[in-house]
Amino acid sequence: MATATDETQQSAFIELGAIGTGAIQAGVSQQARLEEFTARVGGGEFHRPTAVTLPCTCIDGRFGASGELVPNAAGGSESLMVADDLTTKRYAQADDGSTCGQFRAMLADLKAAERAVGGHTAADCHGAPSGCGANDKLPAIYAYVAANGDTLREVAISLLAYEIDDETHGLIVKNAAERTEFSGGDELLSALQENDGRVDVLEGEHTEVLAVINRRPGTTLDRDAVRAAFGDEYEAFNVDEWAFLEGAKAVSEPGYDAEAHKKRVAMFYYNLATAGVLCGPGMRVTVLA
User: Is residue 148 part of a domain?
Assistant: First the structure.
């Protein structure tokens, strides 16, 4: 990762560099307002209050979300399932080793507790099963965690001051490497719909130029406000990291802080790995504190 600061806009950011193996990043036509976008969106101008504390919509920067603003994590509620799968496998089904079986069990538990769940599809899926990259590319993301675990750990510690012991790190990487069966993205989307989850229908192409790691409690990105200011050519991924611990607690044994800590770490690994799979080396990352 490379760090840079634009002196005019006073915006500090990090570029993914070698961590980014995908294609989404700022293009030539997006350079005109890139510094302004980085400073304003990365500086929190478009983050608004939310009363929800559980991640339940995706980090996707595209427009089309409906309903109230709620916290974002990769794949929405799928982040919580992955956090469980990479650690204690509390929701794993003995007679069904699929990710969909685990997702269904978790969704049922959260719905019974009257917690919000959600994710998204897309108006044009371009042949993808669900229209959500964090969902459809789950095998590639797990492979990324398995191959780049040490890098993910280094970023979590250096960027966010996470405390990650060898046992937790080793467990996450091991479980990522050993997962061989993945349900289709359409199956996980169906499981969400069957549990009355919120499913936004996002529109347009990916034009994200920035990924925001939001650590301001009780806030999330208002994409409609971003669109009003910058049009369709500039979008941002938004990761509400402040909500990860609450999400981890919701899928952990009550009062067992060690389990929730492991799942919070796993959730960050998954979210960063999602960025690594979807985004190119030039993708900018800011931390909003």
Answer: yes
Q: Which residue, 93, 118, 82, 100, is CA-closest to 193?
A: 118
Q: Does residue 1 fall inside a structural domain?
A: no
147 burial (CB, 10 Å; 0-12 / 13-18 / 19+) is middle
**65 compared with 151, residue with greater pLDDT:** 151
Residue 68 lies in a domain: yes
Residue-wise DSSP of 242-275 = GGHHHHHHHTS-TT-HHHHHHHHHHHHHHHHHHH
Give per-residue pLDDT as tens, 196-229: 999 999 998 999 999 999 999 999 999 999 999 9
Residue numbers of the domain that contains 165: 8-288
Q: Which pair of tokens denotes residue 226? A: 């971003």
Q: With 0-12 CB in 10 A as exposed, 13-18 as middle and 19+ as buried, what is 138? A: buried
- Establish if 3 belongs to a structural domain: no
For 246-289, what is each residue's pLDDT tens digit?
999 999 999 889 999 999 999 999 999 999 999 999 999 999 99
